[in-house]
Amino acid sequence: MLGALTGFATIGIVIAVGALVAHLGLFDMQAQTMLSRLAFFVASPALMLLTIGESDVAHVLSANLVASVASVVVTASILLVIARWRWRMSAGEATIGALSTTYVNAGNLGIPVAAYVLGDASLVAPTLLIQLLVMAPLSLAILDRFVRGGGGGVRRTVLGALSNPLTVGSLLGLALGLSGWTLPEVIHAPLDLIAQMAVPAMLLAYGIALRLGPGLGAGLGRKLWVTCSLKLLVQPFVAYAAGHWILGASGAPLLAIVITAALPTAQNIFVYASRYDVGTALARDTILITTIGSVPVILTATLLLSP
Predict the structure, then answer these.
(1) C-beta of residue 167 within 8 angstroms of C-beta of residue 131
(2) Are 207 and 77 in contact (CB under 8 A)?
């Protein structure tokens, strides 16, 4: 439980630093854009390459992954139905909305939570891999096609996804993980140094946007509360239902499934929204509220499901 609190505190402090430097006038929205681009094009691909390359790819076949996929599909489907028939969102806005309700902070928060609360950091690997290798490339392909106005049919959509820097980094990492090959230190060391910029850049950019952007919930109304409710309540419940009633998991494995689904929305989604200039307020505010709201959800799950 201490690990979960430590992870949340670390994220909150770095975001607060970003807000502080913006408040003091040291950085403006141009700096926020620069940090987001740095994370998207440079640091995050390096992070994905190393993270996946050093993961146990066999975990992809675990029950954790099956339950995680079920929770993502059900939760995203609910959001997309509401977005289409109630809110009349564009494809880009709906994509950011779906990501905001399902794409969890499995990296800089999920890893410490898994290590200190569950006792095994590798338990977050299945979710991390499915997000990086399926959810992110698919979502970015949709954003490339519908937000940036790309045409050319399926071929261009696939090529666009494969040329995305995050997808490239993820695929290279998967190749490393499957081959068992280890990067020589002369390559690994600079990549690791660059990768370490990813999370701080995301968090600082997010803090700057919180301070200089529109106020919390500005113009979002029910959209914000629907996305937050889906993320904090529906996704963990569906993960529990799939893990316990369908897969028969219990004890520590079930706790791992629920906690992973209960993690807050990842800062990556704000980077994506900023990159494509769509749904930025929804992504920003959902991240903030779910980061705060996931604390009691995770602590409650730990108390109820701990073996």
Answers:
(1) no
(2) no
The span from the CA of 219 to the CA of 216, in Å, is 9
CATH topology of domain 2-305: Na+/H+ antiporter like fold (1.20.1530)
Spatial separation of the C-alpha atoms in residues 44 and 74, rounded to whole Å = 28
Q: Is 265 helix (H, G, I), strand (E, B) or coil?
A: strand
d(C-alpha 41, C-alpha 113), whole Å:
27
The pLDDT, as a whole number, for residue 155 is 60
14: Cβ contacts below 8 Å, ≥ 6 apart? 199, 200, 203, 204, 207
Best CA proximity match to 51, nearest among 119, 117, 113, 133: 133
Locate tokens 């977050």: which residue?
124
Show the CA angle centred on residue 51, arms to residues 233 and 230, nearest 5°: 10
Which conformational region is residue 84 in: left (phi greater than 0), alpha (psi within -120 to 50 degrees), or beta?
Answer: alpha
pLDDT band at 206; cut points 50, 70, 90: confident
Give every CB contact of residue 135 below 8 A, 6+ residues apart in sequence: 72, 99, 102, 103
How many whole angstroms separate alpha carbon 193 and alpha carbon 251?
38
Q: For the chain, which residues make up each domain, given as ranges?
A: 2-305
Give the CA radius of gyration of the chain.
Answer: 18
pLDDT in tens, 165-189: 877 888 888 888 888 888 999 999 9
pTM: 0.79
Residue with tokens 């096609």: 145
Query: At 55, which amino acid appears?
Result: S
**Pairwise CA distance, residues 202 & 40, whole Å:** 9
In the numeric block, which tokens belong to residue 234? 């529906």
CA nearest to 294, candidates 266, 254, 253: 266
Tokens 């990086």 sit on residue: 132
